[in-house]
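The instructor's notes for this session suggest beginning with a concrete chain rather than abstract definitions. Hand out the sequence below and ask the class to guess, before any prediction is shown, which regions might be ordered.
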Amino acid sequence: MSFTTNPDLVHVLRGGAIESFHRGALAVVDADGTLRCALGDIERPVFPRSAVKVLQALPLVASGAADTFGLSDEELALACASHRGEPRHAETARSMLNKAGLDAGALECGAHWPYDEAATRALAARGETPSALHNNCSGKHSGFVCVGCLMARAAGVEPAAYLRGYVKPGHPVMREVGAALQAATGWDLAATPAGTDGCSIPTYAIPLRAQALAFARIATGHGLAPGHAAAARRLRAAVAAAPFFVSGSGRFDTRVMERLGERVFCKVGAEGMYCAALPEQGLGLAIKMDDGNNARGAEVVMAAVIEALVRLDEGERAFMQDFSAPVLTNWNGIEVGALRASEGLRAALA
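After discussion, reveal the predicted structure:
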């Protein structure tokens, strides 16, 4: 298999020289499918991973499950989240399950220690071990469980039994989630490479152009079925109202959406993926960093896109520059370098 050489999107500077760089690809698309900006190979199918959780959450609202179980904004935001396992994250996932009459035993995402160090230390100090509630995908899975419970009620069967194996591609819950993903992206999931995500559900390779189109549809509702369009509006509003639940303390997605509100819906995914909806501009975007770097390269690119495309006041622009041009310090707090969006990226976005 051959790959197109993607351009440098981010430079790592030390002593005024480029020490290393992060290459990748980027697509910005409107809801009609018009390509507004492209860098690198945007046609190669890539796994979006957790960047598309809002697409996977559309059935939670469109099915009526969110209303049936009285889910709050915090709970809907958590259904779109890759959270840090902080106490409020775990308790909100527990609340979703309790409203559906189930507990953490229904989750099939697996357990891991919280990504948040303070939460991990607190668990260990109490002599406790993590549960599936601390999994960064527990909110998404709790949403799946709510959808499955509604399906079980309609079928007149016991929910716990109905839900077993809900992470498998052939389960009715995953078929509904896959259908929402395919409808939003316009990409045939049956004819593309498929794998298993870190939380055990199916993940499908989709070109950046199609991922960006899906997020333009999330931004505008245009091109979505009425139920999914209404679900997109509600999920965006929920995330804007409760951005802490999408990621957590100090994280890019939470901090940016706390500051910019409904002007930006952004979501990171594993292996250098990032997607965003920009409702005021009617645009969607998708980013893939070749080296799979999330915390450095992808965040700088996303910040540069927001700076270029989103209406910002002076204070907001200064806020975003902390992400698009961060200073690197060593363990003594001495400034040693910086990250910068490449000139090629800035020029393409201008």
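Then share the key points. Residues 45-284 form one domain. The mean pLDDT is 96.
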